[in-house]
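pls read this protein.

:::
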Amino acid sequence: MWVLFASLNPVSEGIRSVFIKKASRQHDSFVISWANNFLPVIFFTPLLFFIDLKFNTLFWIGTIGSSLINVAANILYMRSISKSDISSVMPMLSFTPIFLLISSPFILDEFPNMMGLIGILTGVVGSYMLNLDLKQRNIFAPFNSLVKDKGTRYMLIVAFLWSVSANFDKIAIQNSSTWQHMAVTNILIFTTISFLVKTTKKFEIKSIPNDKKYLLIISGFTVGSYIFHMTALSLTLAAYVIAMKRMSALISVVLGSVFLKEPNLRQRLVGAAVMFAGVLLIVFS
């Protein structure tokens, strides 16, 4: 079942990224970050009254750690997509599984078997290839964009932050439940971002333009992403879930080409094929 949930997550994430790009044309990244957790708070909070609650020190360490990291990651994620093409920034997330191979053994005492490890590394290579310019034959193009493009740098930081927060998520889930962790995490994230935008005076709720449809769509897909991601984390290794989640880079590239007219789709299909091979290795591991 973890394969199903881990596969649905990148679909939700990929579609969400397209609407984030559309929303960024009229909304500040702080507005999008605030709206991102609006519906999840409304959806998950009432569940606290219908589930068995379990609170201990490890739950709070995992939940507070994940929440604080995700506040920073969400803002940088929105800002990255608003400043650059989706097809340029999303492949940077392919490095999250690499970071996890370093962080998970220390935090969770988890490490994949040999086939799973090869699958993760294959997926990273495929995701990296999505951002290569094959016509120029420059294998360092993604790293060059780190120097030239601020949005790409933001997304690499997000990749690192998510590699840490995924471990905290699993700690919290193991010491409570998937639904409890999602509910409390979203309350903390939404409250923190609301406090930040209020104190920094980034925006007023009433000043948000009348056209809020993209913000609501983004928030709706965030609900789905949370459910798929956290459920998969509760069922298997964090590194496997994040490696599967990076298929969102492929989906984002395809959707960016179709709906936003971003270039070089055909050459990126080579990277897509390599990513798919990596996913199959993870599944069969």
Remarks:
- Residues 2-284 form one domain.
- The CA atoms of residues 19 and 202 lie 21 Å apart.
- The first helix runs from residue 2 to 23.
